[in-house]
Each structure stands twice: as C-alpha cells, then as structure tokens.
Amino acid sequence: MANNPRTLDAVVSNPNPALLPGPEPLTGQHVALERLTQNHLPDLYANVGSHDSTWTWLSEGPFSTAADFVHWLNPFLEKKSDDLVLYAVLPLSGPSKGRTVGLASLLEARLTDRIIELGVWFGPQLQRTTAGTEVLFLLGCLLFEKLNYRRVEWRCNALNLASKKAAERYGFVYEGTFRQHQIVKGRNRDSCWYSIIHSEWPMCRKVFEKWLEDGNFDEQRRQRSRMEEIRVSLR
C-alpha cells in the first residue's frame, strides 16, 4: 500500500465560499444591468418576448400577449430564490437607451463549491452588439473578482449553434454533451456544457477589454478585430 500512494487533486488554497450577488446594479460603458422587477416586464415583452424566434430554445413560450408573459414570469419574481438572480439589460445609448432589451440570469449557485451557471436572453436590439458583449464582461468581473466563484457554467441545446458559437467567442471551454438530458416541448434535448474557470478569467478579461476598446471599432462601429483573433494575439 505504501508503494502505491493514492493520487489526489490539488488542495484548494481559498476555502471561502462564493457569495450571492447583491441588489446593486452593474454599469459599464455601453450597458447597465438592474435586478429585474415588475417595472421592466412591459419592455422585456415588447423587445424580447414578443419575438417568437427568441423562444425556440426555451422550455416555455412563446406567449401571444403581454399579460400571459407577465403571468409566466411573476412566480420567478415573487419567489425571490437565492437559486435564481435575474437582471434586466438596458443599453446606455442608442434608440433603445434605458429600455429593457434583454435578460441575464445567474442560477444553480453552489456556494461551497463556488460554481454558478450564467445565461442570457437577448432581443434583436441587443444581439451582435457591443452592449451585449459587455453584459458578459460585467458578469464575469462580478462573479470571479468580487463574489469568489471559481467556475462559471454555460449550458445550451446541442442544436443551438448560435449559443455554442457565442460561448466559445466569450472564452467558455466546451466540456462535453449530456445526451438525452431533457425533454423540452415534447422534443429530445441534448445539452452542451461549457465553462470558464477562475484561472482562465484573467485572459478572458484581457480579451474582453481589448475588444471593447474604442480603437477596435471604425467610424461605423464595425469591429476591427474579432475576439477570437485578439485571444490568439495575446497567447
């Protein structure tokens, strides 16, 4: 037995648990995240929920009326569970300034293990925008730098190519596919799992910061370098 000692993984140097987000908003250069309230719901439906295409990969919806949409969301707001934190996403400039055009969620927090899942639900005004990218940057800074998480997860339907591409663009690492993971709207769902761990966040942060620099955009606000190109250049 002494000649075959067991091999154990590294000791975790920081034993302190992660923390849950507080009520304060997160504000960047292009976007603000506010804890979701009833006041955000009319805009959320008009700018996100009323577009049938945004429901393709969700377990519920679409809803044909704002009232039905609010009825669906109300239990999540009233429950006030530590297991689900919802943020309204509001651009700070442009035609949608100050209006809720997306939703960001933090869920299934395991504070002792310092793990949490991140999800986003963006309307057309937020998709493929600088503001949308900054949402992920703000949440990454919050989770890794202020709340002591060591792993942030991203999960999506294995057929959701846009979500898989977004995860990889943001720096999440593909870990595998859970086969027959769920039944959603009567259909099979295989789920892809991605993550960023705390040792990877410093590089991810540099990529976000470099991409978000004003100098990375031309006069028409078109990107000069993609995040993937910046990531390669920094290695």
Overview of the structural elements:
There is one protein chain. By secondary structure, the protein is α+β, with helices and mostly antiparallel strands. Helix content is 30%, strand content 26%. It has helices at residues 41-49, 66-79, 130-146, 161-170, 201-212, 227-234; strands at residues 26-27, 31-35, 84-91, 102-110, 115-122, 151-157, 173-184, 187-197.
Overall pLDDT level: 94
Rg for CA atoms: 19 Å
Coarse structural class: alpha+beta
In whole angstroms, the N-to-C terminal distance is 43 Å
Number of helices: 6
Give the DSSP E fraction (strand runs of 2 or more residues).
25-35%
**Spans with pLDDT under 50 lasting ≥5 residues?**
none
Envelope shape: globular
* SSE order, one letter for each helix or strand: EEHHEEEHEHEEHH
Residues in helices, as a percent range: 25-40%
Overall number of strands: 8
- Biggest sheet, open or closed, and with what strands and sense? 8 strands, mixed
Task: Give the strand line-up of the largest sheet.
Answer: 1-2-3-4-5-6-8-7
